[in-house]
Amino acid sequence: MASAAPVAPAADRRLKVLLFGTSGNPPTGRGGHGGIVHYFCESGLYDEIWIMPVYRHMFSHKRTSMSQPGAATFDQRLEMCKLAFEQESCDTCCVKALPTEREVFDMLAAADPDPHAVERIRVCTYDVLKYLRKQHPDAEFSFVLGMDAYVDLLKGKWAHSKELLDETEFVVVDRRGVMPHHDAVPHGTHIHHVGDLTAVSSSAVRASDDLAFLQDPTALHHAVYSYMQAHGLYAFGRRRAARRQRAAAAAAAAVALGVVGAWAYRRWGARPASR
């Protein structure tokens, strides 16, 4: 049975926490996000793993897609992350899904006197780490990310890239098994190949109407599948919309048939049966 409260670290060392930022839109199963969390939870390297869903995405096209009518809300994405990952907790590692990015966003918004500040505030990884280090001075944080994102970080495409590389231990997951040249890996970066990962992605899950695929544990944890179904998210939202459209079309057809019948009755009326 998984334990939600691992043994506390020895008094002479800091709590080792692995941070995992994700859209959680939705969190994928053992072939994706779930496999990464399971791997590091079982590794014995960390006391806790903190899953942090993105509150408001840095990229405008993703912000737009995540704010469309019918899209999963932040609270729904956070709940799905709890369902997907917290059950991975074991005796030596506790997994938590936390609203950290929203906390940082609210803090930045409160510090800005401009009433329109919320429209331009963007929370970046550097903001999150700065906030967490202040809130938890006794913790030692590492940050896990995929190889593609790590390459972008090395190229300076992230906000405060240099500071992040200088101040943070990065844990890089390479699902393709292609290791970068050792000279390109700064000190303090560790690369792991998680062998059970597949090509499953959140975007593939969002786009799929194949229930067999969605019920596969490599794609989704069963509790996330049930949550999506109960709340009409993604494929289930499209199915609900299709049912509503069919019902509306049937109702419109019934009304039209009734109108025609009433017109015909008025036009010809009821005639006595011939003898």
TrEMBL record:
Protein keywords: ATP-binding, Membrane, NAD, Nucleotide-binding, Nucleotidyltransferase, Pyridine nucleotide biosynthesis, Transferase, Transmembrane, Transmembrane helix
Pathway: Cofactor biosynthesis; NAD(+) biosynthesis
One Gene Ontology term of the molecular function aspect: ATP binding
Keyword rRNA-binding among record annotations: no
CDD domains per record: NMNAT
GO biological process per UniProt: NAD+ biosynthetic process
The Cytidyltransferase-like domain, residue ranges: 32-207
Top-rank taxon: Eukaryota
Gene3D superfamilies linked to this entry: HUPs
Membrane-crossing segments per the record: 247-265
PANTHER family attached to this UniProt entry: NICOTINATE-NUCLEOTIDE ADENYLYLTRANSFERASE-RELATED (PTHR39321), PHOSPHOPANTETHEINE ADENYLYLTRANSFERASE (PTHR39321:SF3)
Identification of the protein by name: Cytidyltransferase-like domain-containing protein
Organism for this UniProt entry: Tribonema minus
